[in-house]
Batch of 2 targets.
Target 1
Amino acid sequence: MTALDAPTGLAETPAPAARIAAPPAARTLPASLRPSRWLPIVLMILALAALWQITAQGMPYLLPPLQAIAETLIGNPAYYLENAWITLQEALIGLAIAFVGSSILAVAISEVAVLRRAIMPIAVVLNVTPLVAIAPALVVAFGFGPEPKLIVTAIICFFPILINVSVGLRSVPTAVLQFYKTIHASRAEMLWHVRVPSALPYLFAALKIVFPLSIVGAVVAEMFAPGASEGLGTAIGLASSNNKLPVIYASIFMLALMGAALLGLITAVERRALRWHETHADGA
Amino acid sequence: MDTPTSAISVRGARKVYGASPNALVALDGVDLEIPAGRFVSVIGPSGCGKSTLLRLIGSLEQPDGGDVEVFGVSPEAACAAKLVGFVPQTPALLPWLNVLQNVTLPHRINRGAERRRPVASGASAGPAPDLEQLLRDVGLGGALHKLPAQLSGGMQQRTAIVRALGLRPEVLLMDEPFSALDEFTREVLQEQLLDLWDEIKTTVVFVTHSVTEAVRLSDTVVVMAPRPGRIVDVIDIGLPRPRSARQIKTPEFHAYEDLIRDRLQSAWQSPDLSTAA
């Protein structure tokens, strides 16, 4: 009877509306677990897989059957993991080089107007140039070792970071600069306490672009310098010349996984580091 | 040259923006002496140079002619000695720092400033003020650890005022600090500002375009006019302090308001009418 008593009791309270509108059971689930969240993407993946299988049945030279990809992945996991590790190392070391170099240059060009005017236009043009095309030239110049891979990766990661960070360092509102000027903050103090934190959201926006891009750079460089060293790009090149379609797609699957993992990682770091920025964006 | 009682001294200040054919004379021949410890409002229509005047005093801009001194030294030297507290029109807080951090950061910047305080300012550099207490005094006790984005506009501007006052400035420069706030919040903040000022009695230059605000807050109201930016009148407000909200409704208060409105109107209209006729 308590179930019946409860509404009667509620009706007598002065403000029952809030309590009557009890949340439905589904609302108690975390947002990410609600079917409305995950069902569309699951259905889409199933539909694409079905389409893939139908295509693979009809035109096996176009797409390998999914089970063939799974077989090679499961049959020889060490091969894929080792190659993925090599590619990942090249990507991350190249990215680290780009990060250090472009951050230093970004501070320099944001502080010195002459440098900015000299460098920014070039940086903008190079940023829209498909720099992966430089890979064959670097292989000619540096041979088949790790150097061309690191250089290609570093080059394609360099300009997105440079441009974003240098814009971010100059994104401080005038009134903020004025306040700190009236207390005679030095350029170093202004940079450290005001400009660098202001640039962090811009840096993370760039990192979300260049983390996946770094893998593109490493793979493309590997493809142009095959044989000598390993990596997923080399694996794809070899499989291509041997007509091993499942191996190509298994390697691509590994690359996609790595790209997604890196993006997930940097997004998680961003969420921690920029909690203030998120609340800022929500409030606006 | 410098009179020790003069906190701010502006002589023949001139500021021009742009090149000669379409140059804008923001300030021309501005003379102003502000004694230490006075609350001075600068009022005038847009483009009369009132904010430019404030920026000259705060070393944010350089005059094209004339001379500006703060306690007998240049505005740069005054800022280097941290004599100046600045409250801009927008709160200008750092969004990644909470209220308390926003207020304490200026104390970690330019640490050598105390040694550069000129003798004229007479500032006995006492112990640093209790910033937390200051924040509590203006009703921010519950918001010490909140980020600026979590605060209302009024609370943000209060934080900005405490940030400036926490520096124990000899000169407080305020550039239309309440103009973006709603009427009610503005009156509350005016009252809090008067309470704070009552305790520290620093020299204040307060730029506003509200006649009521100028009369309520000030010892002296400087009336400016545009094209070129110039001072047309300096009116001392002889109303007793503390000035409560009730006082705004008295005839004496209205008389001052009318006087300032008259000055503003005549200054604003005279050049326009002569060219139109």
Target 2
Amino acid sequence: MWQEVYEELQDRGFVVITVALDKSPDDARPWIDAAKPSHPSLVDTKHVLADLYNIVNVPTVLWIDERGRIVRPNDVAFGTDTFKHITGLEAAKHLGALRAWVRGEAAAIPEARARQLQRLPTAEDQQARAEFGLGEWLFERGRREAAARHFLRAGELAPHDFTIRRGTMPMRGVDPMGREFREMLGAWTKAGNPYYRPLPE
Amino acid sequence: MSAATLTIIEGARAVEVPEARGLEVVTRAEREGRPVALDRDERAAYLGTSAKERARALASLEAPDFALPDLAGRPHSLAEHRGKKILLVAYASW
């Protein structure tokens, strides 16, 4: 999805790093094979990135500058408009801002504003991630029922964390595009909660 | 019959220790404010990182470094791209 924009901007000292929050490289492989990326395309089965960056859904994008500073915190953006009819989110806005930043035509988000826009993890978020970590370790060892108990517990602790609630469905033998997910999403949005939280700017 | 053990998991590391010792480690971690997931039936405990530590790191706006493998199993870090503008994208098959 991002290979095109990477090729367009790579001569400007720009790199895309994609990270699949999937239970196995086999799940990410079809996506990576289709994209044929020349940028780093990584696999994160233990959700290390989710823990470090408080990533509660996908896709999540961040901008990091040459000094290793976060200059655009967690945002929702797509590389193409393939999913626009499902998400209601247009790819163009973020892509335009990204191009302008990489080309040096526009600044990214100022520090104080970036901090305002960050959602920082809570104790419940981290407790949920510990339950996820235990579940994932158990899953790797074939302890499926025990793993599922911890995944469900994690989801109860952090109901806004779809990296956990949806991301663990495949490990519970549940279709993440199926009925259980649709019911989860329905209940979530009916209570007035957004599924995606794109940045306002 | 072997004595009961507890496997302490932290990130990618897992160490099996005698149960009593393991429970001491768990108690100490909890006292330090770390999140702990314990499953006594499965003889395993996962020690996570506190929200305080994660939040402090993120609020500093320093992008936390990491090392993750590509499909060939080669590790890649954020740090190796220092000096470039980076778009970091998390996605999934779900």
